[in-house]
Amino acid sequence: MSTIKVGLLGFGTIGTGVVRNFQRNSEIMRQRLGSGLELTKIADLDIDTDRGVQLESGILTSNVDEVIANPEIDIVIELIGGYEPAKSFILKAIANGKHIVTANKALMAIHGQEIIAAANKQGVTVMFEAAVGGGIPIISSIKENLCSNEFSSVLGILNGTCNFILTKMTDEGSDFAPVLQEAQDLGYAEADPTFDIEGIDTAHKIALLSALCFGTSVDFEQVYVEGITKVSAVDIEFADQMGYKIKLLAIGKNHGDQIEVRVHPTMIPKTYQLAEINGVFNAVRLVGDFAGPTLLYGSGAGMDATASAVMGDVIAISRDIKAGGKPRVPIMGYCDDQIKALPIMAMSEVVSHYYLRFTTADQTSVLAKIAGCLGSHNISIQSMLQPEEREVDSVSIVLMTHEAKEADIAAALVEIEKLDVVLQPTCLIRVENDPV
Questions:
Q1: Which residues are catalytic?
Q2: What is the pLDDT of residue 74?
Q3: Is the pLDDT confidence value at 362 over 70?
């Protein structure tokens, strides 16, 4: 086969990046593949807006069937985003024998099993490197380069918007709201940033990474998700004094008979590699039983970085097509009949260290009352901060606990917040103390 033909659904920012990559590096890709790649058709509702790239006449169409039902096209790239019509278009393309490349993490996290089943039945593949970490080759690393390892954990900073906000808050001592506005002004945050700042985007990604690492299917509804909207400048300052930074951390852990999959603001030691991931950058830390800790870092979003991941998948599929057409690597990295049903640990059973900040009346014996409630639920105090600066008639008490079960912490806080000396709801941030 001298030329492999590709169709594109969605001509937005990332779609434009894909076209730029095709045009700028077509010769490099031909040299690596041994065949030409041709972008045959691009379907989008808007075919009039100038995207800053030149296209030959007849490539653009508003009729999606000219891509997904075109008998000449071998690979369909889906960059529409969202659940529908992207899901229907992908399933129809698969039914027509097309291989799929997508950057759609939400779709794959929620409807991935249905899409993968359809692809397996049809004998085609689905690749989604660009769905997690932008230009970071994390999925191919899990599925291929590190595939002889049993993974014990996968941790990640997977949302550039949140990481930008927390970095600015840390560096400048700013509160959340003005930094969010700055992120929107700079184009790092959407006009409606809910999916980012509430942790949903990150949760989609860790659901996929956990499934890939641990050889299981992940029910997204069972993933614990907490965003960054309640992180305050004062807690960032206290974290700094205690030797930590606060990041929105995606956490997947393998306990053999069950897994943890959760997303929430997390305090991590300043000496920890992930603590040094700043701005809009992303990183993923894997721990394999043979490879040990591996950190992958890079641009987690953006036109060119994401287009790079998309085209990497296109070339990988093209190599399989040249070798006979049968997908060489299982879609989720494990043979379909070897994917296990592992339950996700209930959040109440998770064990962690905890940062707790109490706002209390400025009276004697307050700490003793709080410590008594904690102790009655088997929670011991590791360290304490009591800042000298005080509000009128109130004081902050900051505690770091030893490891405790989430259910015990929750029960203790119910009792503590009933104390007449506790004036506001407790601020709780979980702490991850894994080795560097």
A1: 205
A2: 96
A3: yes
Domains and CATH numbers, the chain: 3-134+303-338 (3.40.50.720), 138-299 (3.30.360.10), 348-431 (3.30.70.260)
Tokens 């509702």 appear where?
45
The CA distance from 225 to 202, in Å, is: 9
pTM for this prediction: 0.94
Span 7-32, average pLDDT: 94
Q: What is the pLDDT of residues 401-425, one digit of tens each?
A: 999 999 999 999 999 999 999 999 9
